Every structure is written in structure tokens, then in C-alpha cells.
Amino acid sequence: MSDEHGNNHGNGHDSEHEHHAVNYTAIFGVLCVCTVLSICFDLLKESMPKAALIVLILGVAVCKATFVLLYFMHIKFETAWKYVLLAPTAVLACALPFALAPDIAFHYYNVLVPQGLIAAAEHGADHGDAGHASDAHAKDEHAAKHDDHKDAHHEPHGKTEKAHKDKTPAEKPHK
Amino acid sequence: MTHATTATPAKTPLRMGVAIPNGKLGMWLFLGTEIMFFTAFIGTYIVVRLGSPGWPTDTNVTHIKIFWGGLNTFVLIFSSYIVVLAHEAMNLKQFAKVKQLLILVMACAFLFLGIKSYEYYGKFDHDILPGHIPESNQQACEKLVRKLDLATGHVALEDRKNMLERAIADGTGGDAGIKAAQAEVKTIDAELLKKQDIRKVYQTFANDVAANRSSTEPGEAKAAELLHHVAGDEQKKVPGELAAWQKAHPELAHVTVPHPILYGNLFASTYFLMTGFHAIHVIIGMILFMLVLGKGSRIGVNPDDAVVLENAGLYWHFVDLVWIFLFPLVYIL
């Protein structure tokens, strides 16, 4: 019974798809162009603000995902059931990151983990200001603005860090 | 009653459920759970990364290979394109073409996994593994001592000796077993004595590292100094102590100086978690395609083959979709 039911629906679905012929080659071309764009953004990442890079790269990823969903997965041609199924999924999928974010990503208090202390000490050393590193408030503020400054101040092996190799010999890249 | 029936005739027969095959509905429901599964990983990765100032991004340190990641992105997109062509061919009953296209998809999947294996090899080769990465100079010093101990064979012998001593204490194997164990302990002691000569060369360093363990910030500065002393300075062509140790004892030739990577363990954990589960999904997708491909010349004889291929295709596109986000998040940003 259920098989028959399913097959009937299946036939109806196929005929529905025949009415929506898609130029898959063009979609594939767009996806390739988007991939090349992502790599180009990577090459330009030293010369553009971190925030702009994030927006551009994730924007391209969202575009690619949209094309795959709409045309390869045929979501564009499905009926309203797609909203019933995907809307609760999307809400629940966001729950964990949103629940964790206030405590882990955007906390206002000082987190006394060894890595945080090292990062703060390096930050202070780079500025020649030891007092800054011990200033919890300043460190929190710095953490909040980290995206813009991370590469310049915190990475033991970051590209910008290479200029400081003489300072800390332990910070040479592997091999 | 009769009046009501004639006044509102049903235009279409009522049907239960949504207007898609049951198998496809099941696949979409499953993909819904998969979306939540991967969003949990990716979302947690983003949150953890935002909360970790100093996250490693330099590819010289993380051994992330952007070119190979980009190539894998292309391979997956191309395979998705081939899958939709195979689905179209199935609808047009071009079954020979379906078979050829699915073989191409399988080749793409193998290529993807091959490239991924190459990337994983790089991580294992450089010990970029969860729990293996020193995040401070002190941890780097301690890891170096451990590597030196392993290179001398000291650790393996100590472990074996401890195991034998426990067996002797428990009386395992009776009198004969105890005697054999005692004899082996003696041999190990003699071996350890020989190894002491090698250990002597870095014993001072090991002692300094152990002494430095108790303090925090001054300890970290001292650890940096110790590490510098051992590693030397490549730029200034100043050899460190390790070079002299290696010259005296070839057993230590493969030992390299570990370098601290802030949040390196968290990076490695999230990298392997996300890309590992993605690779498992690629393998499952290959198995799904094998269900169709395994029918050989009988592909399309059963009308359900089209539904199976469509569902396998949906799953494959989802795998592609996940990679579309993993590539920029893990490789580029």
C-alpha cells in the first residue's frame, strides 16, 4: 500500500521536474566561479580587513549552498512541505551555537585559562607594556576586538609573527 | 445530507501525507537531523574560535593545505553535478549512461578521500593531533624531554619493567613465570644502564624542565630560554644543544624541537571532528551509490532504482553542502 502510494507520488514528482528543466552545467559553472573567488579572497586576505574577508568568504559560501539547495537538491521546485520540514530544523540547529556563544565567545568577564594568559602576555610584550597584559578589563576589550588584531599580536606562528622570530626562537614553524 | 454531498463535490481525491515518495520524505527527515548534527559541530567551532584569542591560522603551523582543500571543493562540486546528470539520465531511462556517470562519481569520491588522506598524513607527520600539541614553552620543553626519552628507548623499557614488576608481585605464571620475569627485569636494568649514557647528555635539560614546572609566568620565560638553548637559532646559523646530542648519539637523530601553538589542541580536535565526520559521510554516500551501481546491467529494471538514486543524490548534495561551509571556515578564515 505504502509502496504504491510512494510510487504514485514519485511519478507525479518526476513529471513535475520535467516542467522545470534546469541548466545544470550553468549551475556547475557558477559554483566553480564561486570556489575560485573563495581562493582569490584567501590570496587577498593580507590586504583587506578581517571583517570584510569574513563577510565576503562566508557570503560566497552561502551563495554556493543556495545554488546547491535550490537546483541540485531541487528545493526550488518542491511544494510547501519544505518549509514545514526545514524551518524547525534550522531553528534547532541554531540553538547550540546561540546557547554557547554568550559564555564562550562573547563573555564580559576574564577567563583565566593558561592560553589566555600567554596571549595576554604576548600582547603586552608586543606593545612594550607589561601593565596592559595584566589589565583584565583591557584584555577583555582586546578579546572582543580580536578579529582585527589577532594575526598581528597573538599568533605564536602567525605570518606577521615571523618578523619577530629573533625575539622568541620557540616560535619557528615546524620543519 | 444528500443535498450537502451534491453541493460540494470533491475535485481531487484526498491523500494522506505530503506529495513526495515515502523514501524521499524519509531522506529529507534524515537530512534534517544531519543538518542539526553538522550545525552543532560547525556552530560550536565558530563559538570556540571566537572565544580563543590567538587561534592558529598560519598554514605553516597548522599544515592546512588550502590548494588541496580547494581542489577537494571542486571535486565534490563536480561530483554533485555528475549526480544530477545521472538522475536526469535515470528519468530519461538512459541506464547505460547512469552507470557511467555513477562510476565517475565514485572516482571523484575516491579522489576526495585520497586528497583528505594526504592532508591527514601531513597532520600525523607533524604531530598536529589533539592532546599532542604544546601550547606554551614549558609544554614544548616537556614534550621535547618525552621525545628524547622515547628516542633512547628508555620509556618503552621502563614501561616493560613496570609491567614485569607488577607480574612478579602478583605471582603471575607461578614460580617459572616469576623467574622468567626476574631474568627479563635484570636484562632491562642492564639495558637501562647503557641508555643512561645517552640520557646523561640531556639530563641537565630534563632536570631544569622539571624544576621549572612549578612556577607560572617566570617559568614560561625560563622555558623559552631553555628551548632556545636546545634549539639554537636557525637564522643566525647558531646550532643548539640538540645538534651536539644528535652528533654524539645517532639514536636521537630524528628528534625535532616542538614549538608551542596556542590553542593548537582545540584546533586539531575541531579540525579532525568536522573533517573526519564529513569523510565518514562521503564513505556512506559511496555505499549508497554502490546500491545502484551494484545492480550492473539491471539498473532501471526495478522502478524503485530511480527513487534510490534520487535519495542517494540528495545525501551526496548534502555532503557537498557541508564541505562548502567547512572549506572557508577551516581552510581560509
Q: How would you portray this structure in words?
A:
- The complex is a heterodimer of chains A (about 180) and B (about 325).
- Chain A is an all-alpha fold and about 180 residues long.
- Chain A folds into two domains: about 1-95, no CATH class; about 115-170, no CATH class.
- Chain A has eight helices and no strands.
- In chain A, helix 2 (about 25-45) packs antiparallel against helix 3.
- The longest helix of chain A is centred in the middle third of the chain and has 24 residues, at about 80-105.
- The radius of gyration of chain A is 25 Å and the shape is flat.
- By secondary structure, chain B is mainly α.
- Chain B folds into two domains: about 20-130 and about 265-330, Four Helix Bundle (Hemerythrin (Met), subunit A); about 135-250, no CATH class.
- Chain B is about 75% helix and about 0% strand.
- Chain B contains twelve helices and two strands, in the order αααααααααββααα.
- Chain B has helices spanning about 1-5, 20-50, 60, 65-90, 95-125, 135-150, 155-170, 175-210, 215-230, 240-250, 265-295, 305-330; strands at about 230-235, 240.
- In chain B, strands 1-2 form a two-stranded antiparallel ribbon.
- In chain B, helix 8 packs across helix 9.
- Chains A and B meet through helix 1, helix 2, helix 3, helix 4 and helix 5 of A and helix 2, helix 4, helix 9, strand 1 and helix 12 of B.
